[in-house]
Amino acid sequence: MRRKSPQRSARPGIWSIRGPMSRRQYWGFALVGLLLPLLGWWLLSHMGTDDSVFMPSPLDVFRRLIQWYQEDDLLADMWISIYRVTAGFLLSALIALPLGLLIGTFRPVQAMLEPLTDFIRYMPAVAFIPLVMLWIGIDESSKIAIIWIGTFFQMVLMMAEDVRRVPLAQIEAAQTMGATRSEIIQRVIFQSAKPALLDTLRVTMGWAWTYLVVAELVAANSGLGYSILKAQRFLQTDKIFVGIILIGLIGLVMDQLFRFAHRKAFPWLYLRK
Amino acid sequence: MTTKIEIKQVGKVFGEGKQAVEALKDINLTIADNEFVTFVGASGCGKSTLLRIIGGLEYHTAGEVLASGEPVYGPGADRAMVFQHYSLYPWLKVMENIKFSRQLKHGREELTSSEVEKASGRADALLALMGLQAAANAYPNQLSGGMQQRVAIARALMGRPEILLMDEPFGALDAQTREVMHDLILHVHKLEKATIVFVTHDVEEAIYLGQRVVLMAPRPGRIDTIYDVPLPAQRDQDMKHSPEFLALKKEILARIRDTSGMRTDQSMLEQLNMEQA
Question: Which 207-266 residues of chain A touch chain B by CB within 8 A?
Fold first, then answer.
């Protein structure tokens, strides 16, 4: 007599197209994705020559991290970099937000500012360094200015797009309930665009970090970007690794903070029916 | 019977110069106070455009529109609009959506405490009328499409508009939900004494709801025929099977086919059949 085979699950496998995945499986794969490059790096650094200038091992980099922390005041470098990025970013956001709202709401403002912004954003931020030094000087504000130049113009355009994506029916419904123009901007357009605007802030925060090294090209004597540049001069490859990885980690933490804020501020987006 | 809406020689041209398209031409129509009028017609006949012109959301390029005797220059709280979808505020709970107009300057003008009380009484009454009590504290995206449209209707009624404009409000709902909504909106019409102008592509819906059905034709958008619906004021679902209902439905459908230019498709099919035979 043939025995029945155990009931096969109707749940499609994880490799089916856009298939389902449990949280445990997700984190399992995420861990593999993170550890594999680490393993590859370790293998690569131990193959062939033991030349730690060409390719420092993870252990070399870790040792350098500890040394930087104990002897060269790593925390001070981190804080000054976080300060510069955050200041440049906040300055961008503060100006981009009202401008984005106006561009996305009023056609004349759009016509006046959007082509101009589109033009400027293709100019390389690095190329502004001599001008920034000439106009602003070489103190903190010049580094903040570079980060501002790198993020502001992109941010304005993205925010204007966020505002334009507010469904017309939401605006028109308010109009037929007697809302004035300023009421519509405050109570409908801004409220409706808020989640997208916060997402734009999150994405542009990441870009702000990519301009850090450029910003600290300007007569800096501290900071993660500056340390990377200095390490390059002395061929301290391990220190370059530390700097790059730290910038990546700080960016990751900030990204997660933004995601957390998004979930807290806009609970209706995370509800199930 | 007093006149509520007067449309005189209204025309609408979209675009300029060579790209100009005549969407509406020589529209004349008078709608009485507390009337329920429905608009049907082939796509491109301009029925939605005309509704939006009455609402002041679109401007006419010829003629004149009067609402309660006043010329229409833009939207106003006297002409509330219910849209097909995406008009609710997803960041506000159901009750907050319904009370939205109370937060506007317009709604705050008469702010005595008894009137505030009356207003929240009205919000509660609308919530009950629409069968939404259980959903008062839900967010719109937690509701089904039919429930969302109930919220949209309650919100539009909150400010006691004299005219309620409805732009295919049930177009995205399934057939069963739509039937329920039909009886609900007829009930609302009886209670609220508002003049309702209702645009739809569903002929059955137009006949069941309307006291008059206005059939529009495209290229250029114009009024083709106005039908008086030969049904008692108090409608019920069984009337959809009455001979009068079915005859009118057949007549309107035929007329839409005649005016839509869809005849070519029919002859194409016949030709195709002949080729295959």
Answer: 266
Q: What per-residue confidence (pLDDT) applies to B213?
A: 96
Q: Which residues contact B124 (CB under 8 A, 6 or more apart)?
A: none
**ipTM rounded to 2 decimals:** 0.90
The model's pLDDT over B72-125, given as tens digits with 9 standing for 90+, comes to 999 999 999 999 988 999 999 999 999 999 888 765 565 667 777 777 788 999
Q: Where in chain B is the domain with CATH 3.40.50.300?
A: 3-78+162-276
Instruction: Identify which of A239, A262, A246 has the alpha carbon closest to the alpha carbon of residue A53.
Output: A239
Considering only CB atoms, A178 lies closest to which of B55, B91, B107, namely: B107
Domain layout of chain A by residue ranges: 58-270
Please report, for residues A124, A189, B59, B184, the alpha-carbon distance to residue A107 in angstroms, rounded to integers and kept in the order given. 28, 15, 17, 40
Tokens of A216: 């600290």
Positions of chain B with pLDDT lower than 70, given as ranges: 106-112, 262-266
Task: State which fold the B3-78+162-276 domain adopts.
Answer: Rossmann fold (3.40.50)
Token pair for A263: 């979930």
> What strands lie across the sheet with B70-71, from one edge to the other?
B21-32, B3-14, B62-67, B70-71
Copy the structure tokens of residue B140. Answer: 């719109």
**Pair A205, A255: CB distance under 8 Å:** yes
Second-level CATH architecture of A58-270 = Orthogonal Bundle (1.10)
- Which residues share a beta bridge with B213? B38, B227
Report CB contact under 8 Å: A192, B89. Answer: yes
Q: Is B81 on the interface with A (CB under 8 A)?
A: yes
Predicted local confidence at residue A52, as pLDDT: 74
Task: Kindly provide the b/e burial profile for residues B155-170, where b requires at least 16 CB atoms within 10 angstroms of the residue's own CB.
Answer: bbbbbebbbbbbbbbb
Residue A48 backbone class (left: φ over 0; alpha: ψ -120 to 50; beta: rest): left
